Amino acid sequence: MDTVTHDSLPCGIEYGVVHLPKRHVISFQLRVLSGCCADPIENLGLARLVEETLDKGTTRRTGQELSDAFDAIGAGRGSGTGRETTTFTCTVLPEHFEQAVALHAELLRTPTFPDDAVTANIDLSRQELIALQDDAQGLTDKIISRQTYGDVLGRHPLGTEKTLNTITRDHLVTHWETHFQCGTMILSVAGPIEPQRVADVFQNHFDGFGSSEQSRREPLGATFSPGATHHHKDLEQQQISLCFPGVDATHDDFPAQQVLLGVLSGGMSGRLFTEVREKRGLVYWVGAWQDMPRGLGTIFLGASTTPERCDETFSTLLSEVDRLSVDLQQDEVDRAITGIVANRQTRGDGTRARCSELASDLFFFGHPIPNEEKLAKVSAVNVETVKKYLDTHPRNRLSVVTLGPRPLSQTPGAATTSEVAT
Amino acid sequence: MATDPYTVHTLDNGLTIVIESMPDVRSAAAGFLVRTGARDETPELAGISHFLEHMMFKGTPKRGWQDITIDFDKMGSSYNAFTSEDRTVYYGWVRHADIGKQLELLADMLRSTLPPEEFDMEKNVILEEIAMAKDSLEHLAFDFLQEKLFAGHPLAWPILGYDSTVTAMTRDQLWEYFQKRYAPDHMTCVVAGKVEPSEIIATIEDLCGDWKASGLADERTIPTFHEGVDQLHLERFNQQLVALTYPSISAKDPLAETAAAIATILGDDNSRFYWNIIQKGISSRAGVYHMEYTDCGALMLYGTSQPERVEQLVDAMKAEAARLCDDGVEPHELDRVKNKRRTSLAVECEAPYHRLTQLMDDMEYFGEPRSVEQMLADVDAVSVDSVRQYLDAFPINAIGHVTSAGPRDWPGAN
Question: CATH number of the domain at B6-208, please?
């Protein structure tokens, strides 16, 4: 069993470390507990702009000099804005760990938000919104998220053309001052490094950065709204996305939900691939997945197909979920469990995957969960557990979105409206 | 960094086996590389290699299609297959104790019966895949680029084929192609992970030793690179994609790492394109891609923008290309590329699946596996002088080929 340490630094950063002595790289992930849900309604897109502009200049270096400094140590890095978090990830050789932390401290603590970079990144966000119009699947995801989760949790990190027009450099500075501080940061580290060294390096570089009082650990309290809409777009294929309430990662029924998704879509022997693609030839792509903001779980099913096959594809998706209560077999459950366990063990050979898993535990549970414990819960699931899950969490509230040339002929359980895709 | 030795063994029937033992991991990956792809097709059979890849999952003398997927999933394998211009690959990544079962399943799949009753259903699936590709500006643009760049040569055919060729394809045509191309002397089996090489060789000998070689000669030819300006008018998209493409070297050329370094310096993160095009707000997506095959290559500068900004984008890309040709690169730019490559190689060495794909590239391009040290030595050999040597031989400020795809017409385009 790998050693996992979990504690808080005096500066306020909550951290976890998986010590993996035989690895050749160190990965770390720093999550700031503030994402696009923190954007003021009139400035949607602000959190992502802050993330994009933080590394475009510090009090010590220009943006290009900062990027050169990261490249000088061969750092593989990235960042992203989600609904509830802004995340910074980095993978380096062990000898460059401290310098990588120092550079992250520099960009997080002393950004200058240069005017030209702010202007350019607002313009780039506008262009990305236009690019999203050419991405059928991405656009469908955006629409169903807004329909299902509403104005706060359902917003897209890019914002809108209108809200981007309102954003100024001052907004970026205020957002950064308000949301970026040690007390809102969760750090996860994996690799050949002692936990004490991680603590020393981060404490040294982040000490005094904003409030040390830990905050933003509570879910946003979002709700699920059913509905059904069609959005017209000139496409070869019709995009179908539907979702219904599930459970979040901390719920006792979560292992059963994981297995349920494995039965539906865990591998090519999953029900959706078998019934929708292999037996009926309706689609190339079909899948099921879960979306988990804190405190809320949602199960999604999706497919894309040519318009004449859309109704049959949609009805097959629904019937396959309903059929689970009737004829679920133990061998399907066993395969789903094996898939989850094996996936964890094979991909766990990668240091980045281990870091990411720890980050997820800290975010959802507030502490690390031993792999063995998680896998034991999944392994304990059987047919009856999944059926009980299906009974306890009825699928009578659906959110459905279709994007493409024509609406569905019939959408059960909800009125259909037709709109132009935006 | 891993320095594990490699084992290379060839069976009597010509099947090459490559094994990398990685004692510190818990998993293992296995895959078969079949040396056949879109460039081995005739125009009438465009898409047949990809169709065959789908049919390999449909049944063998031992297993029906559901048995195949169930057996993969019983192991919890991360598995799939893909087809490119020059190869078709089948792979599975499993816990190390399951590697024998994984090899048996992959080997069995490759002796497919191409069940006639599954043929039409799978054709539907592929036609849906083609339809999905038509909703992607990038997919349409890059297929169009290949079609024009290598016009008249098999590298011009789209990997998925066309609606017309796939619709017209018969099971007999697939069978004939399959018998000709899926012979052991056209395959390499690669295994990487926590494995014992002698056991792996014995297992593969047992599974594949009686496969019959075809003796098929390599009929691949080197394409002619076509210069010019071509446009694909696509009214229903909101953006315009433009690519400037120039002749380049093959993947096995001694300057291959130099070409990769040029692509990184010009078009990757923290690149000249990033700071002088993207961060100037001209385009949100601009990059450089080195298309490489065993016998030829092309360097493609590309970007997407709003249609009204496309001239600005092309001018900016051309200006950066000209500056590179005139002034070359700075030593510190090369150092950055090398440092990043060291880290990425260290990451890739952790996961058997990544080693599997790297070893397949090595075998296809160099005929032997390369150690991480060898790869790093090749990266270290890139210099200001090698960049100059490349750019003198393959300038990217020449005419080249211009591809435009999107709602706007391109002046002077065909």
Answer: 3.30.830.10
Q: Judge whether A348 lies within some domain.
A: yes
Which amino acid does the sequence have at A355? C
Cα three-residue angle A312-A313-A319, rounded to 5 degrees: 85
**A67 contacts in chain B (CB < 8 Å):** 269-270
Kindly state whether residues A151 and A202 are assigned to the same domain.
yes
pLDDT tens-digit map of B338-350: 999 989 988 888 8
Establish how many alpha carbons lie within 13 A of residue A128's alpha carbon, considering only the half-sphere containing its beta carbon.
20
Query: Do A11 and A88 reside in the same domain of the chain?
Result: yes
Q: Which of B79, B238, B343 sits opposite A134 (nearest CB)?
A: B238
For chain B, what are the domain ranges?
6-208, 228-406
**Domain, as residue range, for A305:** 227-420
Q: Is residue A211 part of a domain?
A: no
Measured between beta carbons, which residues in chain A are less than 8 angstroms from residue B79?
267-268
Q: Does any CB of chain A come closer than 8 Å to the CB of residue B322?
A: no
CATH class of the domain defined by B228-406: alpha beta
For residue A74, give the nearest of B238, B339, B353 by CB distance. Answer: B339
Query: What is the mean pLDDT for each group of 10 consecutive residues in chain A (422 residues)?
Result: 92 97 95 97 98 98 97 96 97 97 98 98 97 98 97 96 98 98 98 98 98 91 91 97 96 97 97 97 97 94 97 96 93 98 90 96 96 95 96 92 93 58 62
How many residues does this entry show for chain A?
422
Tell me the nearest-neighbour CA distance from B277 into chain A, angstroms: 10
A241 lies in the same domain as A325? yes
B398 confidence band (pLDDT: 50, 70, 90): confident
> Taking a C-beta distance cutoff of 8 angstroms, is the pair A46, A175 a contact?
yes
**Pair (A133, A271) in one structural domain:** no
Looking up residue A303, the CATH number of its domain turns out to be 3.30.830.10
Residue B1: per-residue pLDDT: 43
Residues A251 and A161 in one domain: no
The pLDDT tens digits of the residues spanning A258-300 come to: 999 999 999 999 999 999 999 999 999 999 999 999 989 999 9
Q: What is the tens place of the pLDDT at every residue in B70-107?
A: 999 999 999 999 999 999 999 999 999 999 999 999 99
Confidence of residue B2 (pLDDT cuts 50, 70, 90): very low
Give the integer Cα–Cα distance in Å for B348 and B356. 10
Q: Is B238 on the interface with A (CB under 8 A)?
A: yes
Give the 3-state secondary structure of residue A118. Answer: helix
List pLDDT tens digits, range B12-23.
Answer: 999 999 999 999
**Residue pair B65/B59 in contact by the 8 Å Cβ criterion:** yes
Q: Answer whether B117 touches A (CB < 8 Å).
A: no
Which residue, B352, B354, B372, B349, is CA-closest to A23?
B349
Is B237 an 8 Å CB contact of chain A?
A: yes
Find the closest chain A residue to B286 by CA distance: A124
Would you say the CATH fold of B228-406 matches that of B6-208?
A: yes
Q: Is residue A219 part of a domain?
A: no
From the list A24, A283, A341, the residue facing B128 with the nearest CB is A283
- The count of structural domains within chain A is 2
Compare all CA atoms of chain B with the CA of A127 and give the residue at the minimum distance.
B284
- Judged by a CB distance cut-off of 8 A, whether residue B41 touches chain A is no
* φ, ψ for residue A4, nearest 5 deg: -120, 125
- Report the candidate in B321, B78, B256 with the shortest Cα–Cα distance to residue A341: B78
pLDDT of amino acid A416: 58
What residue type is A263 in one-letter code? V
* Least Cα separation, residue A8 to chain B (angstroms): 28
Residues A231 and A197 in one domain: no
The minimum CA-CA distance between A314 and chain B, rounded to whole Å, is 15
Partners of B291 in beta bridges: B298
Cα gap A236→B234, rounded to integer Å: 13
Is A218 a domain residue?
no
